UniProtKB/TrEMBL annotation:
Residues 1-70 form the Ferrous iron transporter FeoA-like domain. Transmembrane segments: none annotated. GO terms for molecular function: transition metal ion binding. It holds the Pfam family FeoA. This is Ferrous iron transporter FeoA-like domain-containing protein. InterPro entries: Fe-transptr_FeoA-like (IPR007167), FeoA_core_dom (IPR038157), Transcriptional_repressor_C (IPR008988). It comes from Clostridium scindens (strain ATCC 35704 / DSM 5676 / VPI 13733 / 19).
Length: 70
């Protein structure tokens, strides 16, 4: 399951990041989004979703949300 399929307001654990892009992996890691970390979908938007990771809220586009397996 990926973030686009997640229920709003429910906490999930990141299983893996499904991308071959090292820059994207490094960016997500800098946000605190990596395997084993909790993530919560705050709301779904037309172009992606808003998520809460640690103490921050981030807007993720559809491609990025699909790459995060929960």
């Amino acid at each position: 399951m990926n973030l686009l399929e997640a229920e709003e307001g429910k906490e999930y654990i990141v299983k893996e990041i499904l991308t071959d892009d090292e820059e994207l992996n490094a960016f997500l890691f800098s946000l605190g989004c990596y395997s084993g970390e909790p993530i919560t979908v705050i709301s779904h938007l037309k172009g992606g979703c808003v998520v809460s990771i640690k103490d921050g809220r981030y807007n993720m586009d559809t491609d990025l949300a699909k790459a995060i397996s929960i």
